[in-house]
């Protein structure tokens, strides 16, 4: 009866000398691993978004957070006139990236998505375009 | 120096006030930093860091907590019994602090030709070269420890809330059950020291002859029962956050809540100081450091032990708690008292 009690005390005191796992967050940054699913970004090729507005991503999206509207450009090519992601609904599953046939969307390592207003969580095409 | 007030020199009164101030401020500071130490130690035992942001490694955390509690809104429930509700935190807090009046925290020191015993309720008789302290010191401590429960019961009843009442009642039942065993554990110390004066009990333990070695069972049982009496884990049923939403202090806010908190920590320090005095040789220790240092070191070690225990054991269930108190500790201490009595009667004399 006594030994398990002493063993418990031993375990707690041994943990006291281990290195704490706490991350002092704003000052210490987490080590984001490859394959991390953060904020989306639209890939760019020849100075315009690669997206061809095929509607595969809004179709596959389980949270129904992607809104795409197709348009036609000067070369009669189909392109996404409107491409919006509602980050309040997004579950960061990455299905949109998997579904995309032209590699137009990917997920970045950015995870700090806090904002002050509801409207700010709607990421428009301009905000999602790859920063150069 | 030769002026006498009520038959005692002026220096006696100056020393008395100084001792009260130093002891009170020291205990108050220890209470404040015990909260910090607890959070830090338990944090590290759970492989966390504990408070880190307020000051260097969170050193200003107790001050920040105090300021925060001080400026919080005072809330008195409309259905509460006002007077009892307001007075309960004081009833809990004051007995926790005044126990220090009789605890010797060091041997005598001589300042300017006047010898001062480092114990508040004591004086040094120049003629007889002897320290006189209150000769029923232990009884006084037991009395004050029992008074503390009134604050908790009163708080539970006056809040007029079922959780508070349950917390208060649990506390009363728990304290009464464990006080018996704790008291009986102390009796075996009296049998050996043949005195109730704490100064004499400590003086008897000179040279490493601590009562913890002579009375190991009494020591362990007294310490465990004390944990139960001051409602610390694993016996913290009166507050039990998970089931009673903080028990007796559910309805309390602001400074009144802080008083319960301080009372809890002050009680822990008192219990550790009493255990040190009765079982761990009080101020005795290797002579290269002063007595008060050894006393404080021992008390701090016991406080650390309390926190270590808190980090390790889960809370007892109520029936287990009662069974442990009445069916395990009480018979064990009775046997211990019997054995000590027989030993004193037939072997040691």
UniProtKB/TrEMBL annotation, chain A:
[4Fe-4S] cluster 1 binds at residues 51, 54, 57, 100. It is found in: Cell membrane. Binds 2 [4Fe-4S] clusters per subunit. Its EC number is 7.1.1.-. Keywords: 4Fe-4S, Cell membrane, Iron, Iron-sulfur, Membrane, Metal-binding, NAD, Oxidoreductase, Quinone, Repeat, Translocase, Ubiquinone. Its main location: membrane. PANTHER family: NADH DEHYDROGENASE UBIQUINONE IRON-SULFUR PROTEIN 8, MITOCHONDRIAL, NADH-QUINONE OXIDOREDUCTASE SUBUNIT I 2. It is an enzyme of class 7 (translocase). InterPro entries: 4Fe4S_Fe-S-bd, 4Fe4S_Fe_S_CS, NADH_quinone_OxRdtase_chainI. NDH-1 shuttles electrons from NADH, via FMN and iron-sulfur (Fe-S) centers, to quinones in the respiratory chain. The immediate electron acceptor for the enzyme in this species is believed to be ubiquinone. Couples the redox reaction to proton translocation (for every two electrons transferred, four hydrogen ions are translocated across the cytoplasmic membrane), and thus conserves the redox energy in a proton gradient. Pfam families: Fer4. It is a peripheral membrane protein. This is NADH-quinone oxidoreductase subunit I. It comes from Geomonas terrae. One of its GO terms (molecular function) is quinone binding. Belongs to the complex I 23 kDa subunit family. One of its GO terms (cellular component) is plasma membrane. Residues 42-71, 81-110 form the 4Fe-4S ferredoxin-type domain. [4Fe-4S] cluster 2 binds at residues 61, 90, 93, 96. It catalyses: a quinone + NADH + 5 H(+)(in) = a quinol + NAD(+) + 4 H(+)(out). NDH-1 is composed of 14 different subunits. Subunits NuoA, H, J, K, L, M, N constitute the membrane sector of the complex. Its cofactor is [4Fe-4S] cluster.
TrEMBL record, chain B:
It is a multi-pass membrane protein. It comes from the Bacteria. It is an enzyme of class 7 (translocase). GO terms for molecular function: NADH dehydrogenase activity; oxidoreductase activity, acting on NAD(P)H, quinone or similar compound as acceptor; quinone binding. One of its GO terms (biological process) is aerobic respiration. The keyword Protein biosynthesis does not apply. NDH-1 is composed of 14 different subunits. Subunits NuoA, H, J, K, L, M, N constitute the membrane sector of the complex. The chain crosses the membrane at residues 12-36, 83-105, 138-159, 180-202, 208-228, 265-285, 291-312, 324-346. Pfam families: NADHdh (PF00146). NDH-1 shuttles electrons from NADH, via FMN and iron-sulfur (Fe-S) centers, to quinones in the respiratory chain. The immediate electron acceptor for the enzyme in this species is believed to be ubiquinone. Couples the redox reaction to proton translocation (for every two electrons transferred, four hydrogen ions are translocated across the cytoplasmic membrane), and thus conserves the redox energy in a proton gradient. This subunit may bind ubiquinone. Belongs to the complex I subunit 1 family. It comes from Geomonas terrae. PANTHER family: NADH DEHYDROGENASE SUBUNIT 1, NADH-UBIQUINONE OXIDOREDUCTASE CHAIN 1. This is NADH-quinone oxidoreductase subunit H. Keywords: Cell membrane, Membrane, NAD, Oxidoreductase, Quinone, Translocase, Transmembrane, Transmembrane helix, Ubiquinone. Its EC number is 7.1.1.-. It is found in: Cell membrane; Membrane. It catalyses: a quinone + NADH + 5 H(+)(in) = a quinol + NAD(+) + 4 H(+)(out). GO terms for cellular component: plasma membrane.
């Amino acid at each position: 009866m006594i030994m398990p009690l002493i063993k418990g005390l031993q375990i707690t005191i041994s943990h006291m000398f281990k290195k704490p796992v706490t991350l002092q967050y704003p000052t210490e940054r987490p080590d984001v691993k490859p394959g991390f699913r953060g904020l989306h970004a639209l890939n760019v090729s020849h100075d315009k978004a690669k997206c061809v507005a095929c509607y595969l991503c809004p179709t596959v999206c389980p949270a129904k957070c992607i809104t795409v509207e197709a348009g036609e450009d000067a070369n009669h090519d189909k392109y996404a006139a409107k491409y919006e992601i509602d980050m309040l609904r997004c579950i960061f599953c990455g299905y949109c990236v998997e579904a995309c046939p032209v590699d137009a969307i990917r997920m970045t390592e950015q995870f700090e998505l806090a904002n002050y207003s509801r409207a700010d969580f709607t990421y428009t095409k301009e905000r999602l375009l790859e920063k150069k | 120096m030769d002026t006498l007030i009520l038959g005692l020199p002026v220096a006696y009164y100056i020393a008395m006030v100084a001792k009260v101030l130093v002891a009170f401020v020291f205990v108050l500071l220890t209470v404040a930093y015990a909260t910090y130490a607890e959070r830090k130690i338990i944090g590290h035992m759970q492989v966390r860091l504990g408070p880190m942001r307020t000051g260097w490694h969170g050193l200003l955390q107790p001050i920040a907590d105090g300021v925060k509690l001080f400026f919080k809104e005072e809330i008195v429930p409309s259905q509460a019994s006002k007077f009892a509700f307001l007075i309960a935190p004081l009833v809990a807090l004051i007995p926790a602090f005044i126990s220090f009046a009789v605890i010797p925290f060091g041997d005598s020191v001589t300042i300017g030709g006047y010898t001062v015993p480092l114990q508040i309720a004591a004086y040094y008789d120049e003629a007889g070269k002897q320290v006189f302290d209150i000769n029923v010191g232990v009884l006084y401590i037991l009395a004050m420890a029992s008074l503390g429960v009134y604050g908790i019961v009163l708080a539970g009843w006056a809040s007029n809330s079922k959780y508070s009442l349950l917390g208060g009642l649990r506390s009363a039942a728990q304290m009464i059950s464990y006080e018996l065993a704790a008291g009986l554990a102390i009796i075996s110390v009296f049998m050996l020291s043949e005195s109730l004066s704490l100064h004499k009990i400590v003086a008897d333990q000179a040279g490493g002859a601590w009562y913890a070695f002579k009375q190991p069972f009494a020591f362990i049982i007294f310490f465990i029962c004390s944990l139960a009496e001051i409602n610390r884990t694993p016996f913290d049923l009166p507050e039990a956050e998970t089931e009673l939403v903080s028990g007796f202090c559910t309805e309390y806010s602001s400074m009144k809540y802080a008083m319960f908190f301080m009372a809890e920590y002050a009680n822990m320090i008192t219990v550790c100081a009493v255990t040190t005095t009765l079982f761990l040789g009080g101020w005795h220790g290797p002579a290269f450091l002063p007595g008060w240092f050894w006393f404080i070191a021992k008390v701090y070690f016991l406080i650390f032990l309390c926190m270590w225990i808190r980090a390790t054991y889960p809370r007892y269930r109520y029936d287990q708690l009662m069974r442990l108190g009445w069916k395990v500790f009480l018979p064990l201490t009775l046997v211990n008292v019997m054995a000590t009595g027989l030993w004193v009667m037939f072997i040691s004399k």
